[in-house]
Amino acid sequence: MPVHNLMEELVGSCLKEYMLRHVELQNLEDGEYADIMAITLNRLPAKYVSTLKGEVFAKTQLRAQLESDVYKEMSYAIEKVTSFKRHSEF
Question: Quick one: which H or E segment has residue 49?
Answer without folding.
Answer: strand 48-49
